[in-house]
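Bumping my old thread because nobody answered last time. Still need a sequence for this structure:
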């Protein structure tokens, strides 16, 4: 299946007359990618109409924080194959993109890499198509442009309260509230020249003087967005990435004609049936077998990955750019399957193995969510010219006398502007959802997961996206969000039958 149309038949269920009294009113809190995936799945599975109310105060429905209107230099950092919001339909986004992607072809990657705002248009189209399908089937649908501040169980249903003081009732509540925002690790909030959240860059970079010395806290994909966008706007002052580790994201390689034969969901499922558990060593064995078929050395591959934690970042970036067209499949398989197989495999891993992976979280996310070659080339050009630098070992940043003083292993540096590009912690509670989460915890409707995030204690409560406790290792993966959304839709529909 492809294109923008919602389809019937993906696990649809019909209601029997004995269940007519069950409340099929669904409250969806938040209207980003997670909500889009949920609506798309509901449009395909729920044939017995009820009511859906979506609560979202932002004027940019369906886009969330990452995919709102912004500069064209803020790109989707992944090829279309892993960006479909429709579960198991990996061609859905590519089919919608069609000729829209022609103007955004990355010659080095051989795939369209579009501005995030254009991907937001895809999410919007998918949501609107799903809503149209639901309305045609008799669903009552409304959008409430207010933030939900409280929720409590009210008999067999839920009672929600919005910031305007109004009450709303629902039989199911789905939290699709997105991820957290960057943490202010150095207590710089309120200081003149400090940008606490860079997005949208179209707004924040307008306030940055073109010749100022800029420190960007972080060295991940958000930091790359900031640097590339500054360069595109003609910034002439020095830019320094400040990071404890100094690790830069890996770089996407040009796709090759190789479909994984061992690292697949089917092979993982077979291991689970055979042993009742899937371990990290099992997954390593599948990857070892995958590389063996093409004659690649597994130990050398692992050593190269782990070298990212200690190797000088500029030299590593240069090597990564040189390897964009390399024929090796190792990183390509790992990057593809981290999104397609990873969310399923993660659910089956025992906790000690999950801890092993968390120990290498920065490296793992750098590999699974690389930067695109066009951005890597810009970073390399700026590094070679001396305009961009990477400083590891940062210990303290303070605002004093109208400037920012950065204390690190190599001494003290001074900057005019500091941009906070630290990636939010996985499964962090968004500030705007704080009161809502507090209410759910207080009445026992949900619990905090030991590794972060929220776990429903009531079967009528559903959490989709980054906030889901026990969710996938890479919480920002669109494929993982789509899988969660499909699972929530099936659970909601099945509860009525």
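Sorry it took so long. Here it is:
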């Amino acid at each position: 299946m492809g294109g923008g149309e919602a389809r019937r038949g993906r696990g649809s269920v019909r209601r029997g007359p004995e269940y007519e009294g069950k409340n099929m009113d669904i409250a969806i809190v938040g209207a980003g990618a997670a909500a889009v995936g949920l609506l798309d799945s509901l449009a395909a599975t729920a044939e017995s109409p009820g009511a859906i109310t979506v609560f979202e105060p932002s004027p940019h429905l369906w886009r969330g924080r990452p995919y709102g209107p912004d500069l064209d230099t803020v790109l989707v950092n992944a090829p279309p194959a892993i960006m479909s919001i429709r579960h198991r339909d990996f061609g859905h986004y590519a089919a919608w993109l069609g000729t829209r992607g022609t103007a955004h072809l990355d010659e080095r990657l051989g795939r369209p890499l579009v501005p995030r705002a254009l991907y937001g248009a895809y999410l919007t189209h998918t949501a609107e198509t799903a809503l149209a399908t639901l309305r045609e089937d008799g669903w009552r649908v409304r959008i409430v442009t207010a933030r939900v501040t409280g929720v409590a169980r009210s008999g067999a249903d839920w009672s929600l309260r919005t910031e305007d003081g109004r009450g709303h009732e629902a039989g199911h509540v789905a939290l699709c509230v997105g991820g957290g925002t960057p943490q202010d690790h150095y207590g710089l909030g309120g200081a003149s020249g400090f940008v606490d959240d860079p997005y949208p860059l179209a707004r924040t970079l307008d306030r940055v003087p073109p010749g100022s010395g800029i420190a960007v806290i972080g060295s991940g994909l958000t930091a790359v967005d900031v640097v590339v966008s500054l360069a595109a706007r003609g910034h002439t002052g020095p830019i320094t990435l400040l990071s404890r580790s100094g690790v830069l994201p890996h770089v996407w390689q040009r796709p090759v004609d190789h479909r994984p034969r061992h690292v697949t969901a089917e092979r993982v499922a077979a291991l689970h049936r055979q042993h009742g558990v899937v371990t990290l060593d099992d997954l390593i064995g599948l990857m070892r077998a995958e590389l063996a078929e093409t004659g690649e050395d597994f130990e050398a591959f692992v050593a190269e990955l782990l070298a990212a934690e200690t190797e000088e970042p500029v030299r590593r970036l240069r090597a990564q750019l040189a390897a964009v067209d390399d024929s090796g499949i190792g990183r390509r398989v790992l990057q593809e399957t981290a999104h397609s197989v990873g969310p399923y495999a993660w659910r089956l891993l025992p906790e000690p193995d999950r801890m092993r992976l968390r120990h290498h979280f920065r490296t793992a996310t750098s590999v699974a969510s690389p930067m695109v070659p066009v951005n890597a080339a810009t970073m390399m050009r700026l590094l070679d010219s001396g305009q961009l630098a990477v400083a590891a070992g940062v210990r303290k940043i303070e605002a004093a006398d109208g400037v920012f003083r950065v204390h690190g292993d190599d001494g003290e540096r001074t900057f005019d502007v500091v941009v906070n590009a630290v990636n939010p912690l996985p499964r962090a509670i968004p500030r705007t959802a704080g009161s809502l989460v507090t209410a759910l915890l207080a009445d026992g409707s949900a619990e905090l997961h030991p590794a972060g995030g929220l776990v429903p204690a009531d079967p009528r409560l559903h959490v989709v996206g980054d906030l889901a406790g026990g969710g996938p290792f890479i919480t920002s993966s669109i494929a993982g969000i789509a899988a969660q959304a499909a699972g929530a839709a099936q659970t909601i529909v099945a509860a009525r039958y």
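The CA atoms of residues 62 and 124 lie 5 Å apart. Let me know if any region looks off to you.
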